[in-house]
Design goal:
Layout (H helix, E strand, L loop, with lengths): L6 H19 L11 H26 L9 H8 L4 H21 L2 H22 L2
Helix pairs in contact: 4-5
């Protein structure tokens, strides 16, 4: 079954499509229109300036002094292996896995999340030096 449109129906459909294209075009941010290129240039210029600042000034922070160097032994005693803080993190991880298992009935994901969390904790403590 084929239907043919009359010229007036076709013109009405074209006008409706044109109106929809104008409506969608109004949603595009104004900084991308050819009439307002200066705003786009300002945005791009600020981004380039930010990138240059990050490239030149962030690497200097790498060579900064360690503010926690005097308290290193206390930190190792508090958070090191076998400490109360590490045991507390283990208990919190077990509780979170248990709650996740009970609420979602997905025990595989709960146990897997606990195992991944403990691996991350151990690796992070080694990276930090504890």
């Amino acid at each position: 079954m084929t239907t043919s449109m009359t010229p007036t129906e076709r013109e009405a459909l074209r006008i409706k499509a044109d109106q929809e294209m104008v409506r969608i075009g109004a949603l595009v941010p104004k900084c991308y229109t050819p009439e307002n290129r200066t705003l786009m240039y300002k945005i791009v210029g600020m981004f380039i300036l930010w990138v240059l600042l990050m490239v030149f000034f962030v690497p200097t922070l790498v060579h900064a002094a360690d503010p926690f160097a005097p308290a290193k032994s206390e930190i190792v005693d508090t958070v090191g292996s076998g400490s109360t803080a590490q045991f507390a993190l283990l208990v919190i991880g077990l509780c979170a896995a248990g709650i996740t298992g009970f609420l979602t009935r997905n025990w595989g994901a709960a146990i897997g999340g606990f195992v991944v969390g403990m691996i991350f904790l151990n690796v992070a403590l080694k990276v930090v030096g504890l």
